[in-house]
Design goal:
- The protein is of the alpha+beta class.
- It has a domain of 97 residues: Lipocalin (Beta Barrel).
- Helices cover 18% and strands 58% of the residues.
């Protein structure tokens, strides 16, 4: 009788373990997304280190957004916003006191950090790093 009780306990433990493992493997992790507010940093530009924010939104399966440049105290729309797998890209036109610069940016998203290159017409490629801003809970 004791042996039957031991086997029953062992079977229950094995079934519970299998069930827990099965549930864990089928649970979905949140897909990475560039949606939200990001602070960015571009070191070593001709104007020195550049900082600002990038706002990214998703509406009707289309990404959009804007970029704020601290140095120029200027907001510009970002266009051709794409996100595929972990690659985020966009284009923007910056008016630096009458001098117009087209930009093309491609970054790789890894958690709450994006790193990549902003290619600026007339200047060339610049490293860019963006960090997702924490969402305030309002309490």
């Amino acid at each position: 009788m004791r042996r039957v009780s031991y086997l029953a306990s062992l079977i229950v433990l094995l079934l519970a373990g299998a069930l827990a493992t099965g549930c864990a493997s089928t649970s979905k992790m949140a897909a990475p997304s560039p949606v939200g507010e990001w602070t960015y940093f571009i070191p070593n530009t001709p104007q020195g280190d550049v900082r600002g924010t990038i706002m990214v939104a998703l509406e009707d399966d289309a990404y959009s957004g804007e970029m704020y440049l601290d140095l120029l105290d200027q907001k510009v729309p970002i266009d051709e916003v794409m996100f595929t797998d972990s690659t985020f890209s966009f284009k923007a036109v910056i008016d630096a006191n009458g001098q117009i610069f087209g930009t093309s940016t491609t970054m790789t998203l890894n958690g709450d950090i994006m790193k990549g290159i902003m290619d600026v017409e007339g200047i060339g490629p610049l490293e860019i790093t963006a960090t997702r801003k924490e969402v305030e809970d309002g309490s």
